[in-house]
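[Automated response] Your request has been received and processed.

Submitted sequence:
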Amino acid sequence: YKRGSNKGMLVMAAIIVLLLAAIIVLLIVGSPLQNGEADLPSSSAPPVTSQGPTEEEQALMAEADQWYLKLVNKDNVLTGDYNPELTGINERYNPSGLKFDSRAVDALNQMCADAEADGVSLVVISAYRSISKQESLYNNKVDRLMTQGQSREDALVNAAAEVAYPGTSEHNTGLAVDFNAAEQYFEDPEACKWLQENAEKYGFVNRFPEDKSDLTGIIYEPWHYRYVTPEHAAKMNELGMCLEEYVVYLQNGGHVPETTTSAAAD
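Generated structure:
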């Protein structure tokens, strides 16, 4: 009996030693449950991937490619085969027989008619220009500068500051118009004010605002308006964006990187 009792005590002692060792290990290392680590994913778990664009974001992205938001500038050049269907602008506001994109000409005519009803005269002095016409205007400007003593190289550069290089003018789209006097001070302040307050209702925006020349690459042109649809015109004005910014906004769900370009004339 004494021998068995000693053996049992040894077993008990061994168990106690093992328990004490386990307790010490837990105290040193820490319990996973106590530290909250048991609920965390392991480092080898696959990363959580972001979801794709929402339906609303996809709709915005699709809008960026529509004809009425066609972006034309020195970085987005129209090719010679771009030929929109054209319709003559109402001759009441169009003494020169100019044409506009057929899909938007009714909006332009209505805007001019409503302005007239408010006692404001809007006369279209420039609208659609073919790329070949733009090329002729540009080359003529180059020739005039050369006759003034400039080298051909200088004339090519300086001409582009006043006449947009072929394929880079808004007028080549058939969606842009110049009203009344194409001068930087816009000779008719009533027309200028009326357009600022009402143009968006007809789908038009001032394409080259005074504070956006570094983005558009074009000097301030208060007479130059561009059709983008009423919905987009209102949104652009609400956000304070020019077309360069707005197209990127649509493409990227509202995130627009800052860009800068030098200002010329359209």
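Summary generated for your ticket: The chain is about 40% helix and 10% strand. The CA atoms of residues 196 and 206 lie 8 Å apart.
If you did not submit this request, please reply to this message.
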